[in-house]
Design goal:
Chains A, B: It comes from Mesorhizobium australicum. The structure is a homodimer. By secondary structure, chain A is α+β, with helices and mostly antiparallel strands. Chain A has 15 helices and 18 strands.
Chain lengths: 461, 461
């Protein structure tokens, strides 16, 4: 048991030094998607290993068939939980470079409004700045107390922005070494500048590509129109049947395993005060397109969807061609929640489509991924500890939110390490990650460090 | 009034000479789409003018901004009709050349089965062989009787295979010179080897491109799926609503002006014995997709359609992208029959679409062409004369058929010259026009000449 206050003081006192370290890490252009930067990725990994060793971690660069992993271990007092902290040191490419106001690899601290400063540069928010908030919290703990409040394993990946090809084999091969009581994943954000958030649910995903085939060649619509089956018409009928007039998915069994969100959670989301007009207005829309009678936050956080991500068939160039295509195809994806079963959803969808294909036509399916939803139990003790710790640091109490999309690492930790994740991060929606002029709030970086100190302290108790 | 029998005899006796002339014309590579062959196109026009002059026509090459026209005039006995004969001397390119069994410009007469000979080469069927059947009939008439049975104007075009850019201006500029009582258009075919045909109807066409716009940018389906409007879903709903479960178009007013085909015509079509299995089997299908309870011939010849010729939206590359597109679009065309009004159909369709677009989304339309159907009155006297004349020549009586597609020249004659067309030709479905190894049956060429002699004789009476 250690005292928190001096750790927080140390973080305040060490802010400038921590900014220098972050600037050093940002300076390494560790772009994982471009093979030309492979050596820079390794350099970032080595930089992190050196820094973690300096703090007192047993740290090493671990080779993979792609960019290396960083793994670090530090003991904690007996009786405290063992946590795995995950982040990634690779960054997105920076083009178009001419859209940047500053050199993307030369981090600047800029005052953008009275009392509000931001750190600019590629990776400041995604994910170098975020992961360093945790490293700085550990550093301060060690400095003040000579120890960490609990046992910590760190895993930094170098391929998050390029599909994480080495991650699953690495988790599988090192499951024993990496397994902890739970994971802390920092690749997420706050509700708003004043309100910290813990993501407790992530929707799952099933992707399907369907190709409807009719005649054995493209036909002239003058010669065959009105007699020959048109695959675009068949496909349109299939897709149009997927939702009813109330936006509900009509595929039999689709809602099996979907639970109603507890009313206190719905109330919490309601209290965030985000209207449909506000949420959709930002993208030029105003009317929620999903199930009627549910708020936009419930729709994107706690309800499953069927979306059509792409469609193509026939002549799509300039002008006109009076053709009846031989085939047409669509990419369809389902966002899953709670206990929906990806395999059952896929099977039900395929049966639903097959039923609607005329006897002289055919359909082919191609599956793309399938992952169940992730749902943290709302009554988990470490969840309430983290929530209270965050609420102590920020102007407003922490909220439990969900994410409409998936974060693959969370599913992978569950699959390969049998471990749940607590998703806490300090990014903001306007951080422009993956875009020119990425930034991270100075308050995110500073109060983020303090938040981790508080969370580690709370978890250890 | 002249006697027909000696003209037919002269055609029989002159067959070899007529084949030599056709071979001379085929030898000129008058490919209109390739500027490298411009001089050859002119040479073909000059060859035709010389030949028509030899027969006794007042003939000339007429310059246009593209390839020249051939116009020829010949007087006829007072009280006989004035007919305009139309054909085209230009041909399709010949590539891939290695697919040809013989030089495409060196016409051969080949025996392909006992008693069945074909003429091989580019343009033998489309359209040099066809137009020469008419020229040879005129030649024989003049030779035997020193006169033609009626007044004849000939128009040969050199841009039919390249979109006829000069045709409309030429018709407009020379309307007075070219206007006749009706036109004979030879660019069509027989029902089968033994059954001549007159095309009495051509479907019209309305093309529309619609683009549904939702959010002002592409969205991540994780972040917005279930809340934001998806333009592919909206487009699918619109297209799926165009046909009811019986294949009937649901657009209000769509069938205004559509007439039921006279029962004797339906019976004639029925007697042709073409089953849906046979017609569709050839393209790998078996079930008619149009209005239920109508034969395939009625569907493609006498019923209007709505066809979807192309559709595109969202991510259509390899793999998967969980995007909600900002827009999606489709190309839609309507084949029109009888008195359907292209403008009204277009307006009705646009209203139909607009009604189905959510209030926060929009739709844009782009019109592509619009032409009404062409329908010869079944009781026209020159139609029955031509039908009887054809029936006298061939093993089986002539049938009145229709065409699912449009032949622009027929509409142009109606628009610019106020003149109906009688469509008679001797091509067969297996003539491979536009493809390697184009051929024309020797029987088409020989009996085609005799058929025109009979038709001219009948029209003059």
């Amino acid at each position: 048991m250690t005292s928190l206050a001096p750790v927080l003081d140390a973080l305040d006192a060490g802010l400038d030094a921590s900014l220098t370290r972050l600037a050093d890490l940002v300076r390494i252009p560790s772009i994982s998607t471009d093979p030309a930067y492979a050596a820079e990725c390794r350099r970032a990994a080595e930089w992190l290993v050196a820094d973690l060793k300096e703090i007192g971690f047993e740290a090493s660069v671990r080779d993979t068939t792609g960019h290396p992993m960083v793994v670090a271990h530090h003991e904690g007092p007996a009786g405290t939980p063992h946590v795995l902290f995950y982040g990634h040191y690779d960054v997105q490419p920076v083009d178009p470079l001419n859209m940047w106001h500053d050199d993307p690899f030369d981090m600047k601290v800029k005052e953008v409004a009275p009392g509000r400063k931001v750190l600019t540069g590629r990776g400041t928010a995604d994910d170098k700045g975020q992961l360093m908030t945790f490293v700085e919290a550990c550093r301060a703990y060690k400095k003040v107390h000579g120890a960490l409040p609990c046992r910590i394993t760190i895993l930094f990946e170098g391929e998050e922005e390029s599909g994480s090809p080495s991650l699953k084999p690495f988790l599988e091969a090192h499951a024993k070494e990496l397994k902890a009581d739970f994971a802390l994943v920092c690749d997420t954000g706050m509700w708003d500048r004043d309100t910290p958030a813990i993501s407790t649910a992530l929707r799952g995903l099933v992707g399907e590509e369907i190709t409807v085939k009719a005649a054995d060649r493209d036909l002239h619509s003058g010669a065959y129109g009105g007699a020959a089956a048109n695959p675009i018409r068949i496909l349109a009928k299939v897709l149009a049947a997927v939702h009813d007039d109330n936006g509900r998915v009509t595929i039999p069994g689709f809602y099996d395993g979907v639970e109603e969100t507890p009313s206190q959670i719905l109330k919490q989301w309601e209290s965030l005060g985000l209207t449909a007009e506000e949420f959709l207005g930002e993208i030029g829309l105003s009317i929620p397109s999903g199930e009627k009678g549910r708020s936009v936050l419930e729709l994107i956080w706690a309800r499953p969807t069927a979306e059509f991500n792409g469609i193509i068939g026939g002549y799509t160039g300039k002008g006109f061609k009076t053709v009846i295509a031989a085939e047409a195809s669509a990419k369809v994806s389902f966002r899953l929640v709670h206990k929906q079963d990806p395999d059952k959803i896929r099977d039900a969808f395929r049966a639903f489509v097959r039923e609607r294909i005329p006897a002289d036509c055919s359909v082919e399916f191609h599956g793309h991924g399938g992952s169940p939803a992730i749902q943290l139990s709302y009554d988990s003790p470490f969840l309430s500890k983290a929530k209270n710790a965050l609420s102590d640091e920020w102007p407003k109490p922490a909220v439990m939110i969900a994410m409409g999309g998936s974060i693959p690492i969370v599913g992978d930790f569950q699959t390969y390490l049998g471990m749940e994740s607590l998703l806490v991060g300090y990014g903001l929606d306007d951080d422009r990650i993956h875009s020119p002029n990425e930034k991270y709030e100075l308050s995110s970086f500073h109060k983020g460090q303090r938040s981790w100190a508080r969370i580690l302290d709370a978890l250890a108790k």
